[in-house]
Design goal:
Layout: E1 2-7, H1 15-29, E2 33-38, H2 52-56, H3 65-74, E3 77-83, H4 91-99, H5 101-112, E4 123-130, H6 139-152, E5 155-163, H7 175-190
Parallel strand pairs: 1-2, 1-3, 3-4, 4-5
Bound molecules: flavin mononucleotide.
Length: 197
């Protein structure tokens, strides 16, 4: 089973990537085949609100997002991973998410024509890390991820959120969370509740 993995941190081998790798160990154990897409290596312009996709469901901005939109349509499982930046996702992840507006319009137009079919196999997961432990630290990012998956026509399958890691290498020291993430990755592919306590 193909799994699209969108890495939103510009920091290579940073905390969100280490956590995502642990989650992917579980994904692979259950037969998932991850394709890792490092968003900061791509050219993904912000949405320019031109209204082009309102009429066609297709984005007119010709950059690296166009092949990603096609991949999202043809893949059943996705993971978005991002550190928390100012209580939201990173700018790279947000530009990517804003550009899924074309998929939201595609879905709306297909629904209008009675041609949209909900596919319960299509599911998305969100992984995040934040340095601080405030009660609401992940709230904004989780809402953003939920509505991104709505645009993509995927059910929100859950999230794995770790507060505390800040410096590069911090996440690697948290064996307990890495082990839990691996279980959550297995559960995601098995279609079980991915939440682990
Ligand atoms: C621009 C920027 C904004 C940040 N904003 C927050 C924040 O609002 N709250 C927080 O707890 N951590 C914040 N952080 C810390 C990161 O979430 C933290 O360092 C995280 O471990 C980075 O993950 P990464 O290694 O995957 O990039 C911010 C870091 C940067 C660079």
């Amino acid at each position: 089973m193909d799994v699209l993995v969108f890495l939103g941190s510009p920091r290579k081998k940073g905390n969100s990537e280490v956590l995502t790798e642990a989650f992917l160990e579980g994904v692979k154990q259950e037969g998932g085949l991850p394709e890792i897409i490092r968003l900061c290596d791509l050219t993904i312009s912000p949405c320019i609100s031109c209204g082009g996709c309102d009429k066609t469901g297709k984005c007119v901005v010709e950059d690296d997002m166009i092949p990603l939109l096609k991949k999202i349509i043809s893949t059943d499982k996705a993971i978005i991973s991002s550190p928390i930046y100012f209580y939201g996702v990173s700018a790279q992840a947000k530009a990517f998410i804003d550009r899924t507006q074309a998929l939201w319009n595609r879905k709306r137009l297909l629904q209008q024509k009675g041609e949209w079919v909900d596919n319960p196999e299509r599911k998305g997961f969100f992984i995040s890390v934040a340095a601080t432990k405030g009660a609401k630290i992940f709230e904004g990012a989780v809402l953003t991820a939920k509505y991104a998956y709505d645009a993509m026509g995927m059910e929100y399958a859950g999230d794995f959120l770790v507060s505390g890691p800040d410096k590069r290498g911090d996440m690697k020291k948290n064996d307990k969370k890495l082990a839990e993430a691996k279980i959550a990755g297995r559960n995601f592919i098995l279609g079980l509740d991915a939440h682990v306590d």
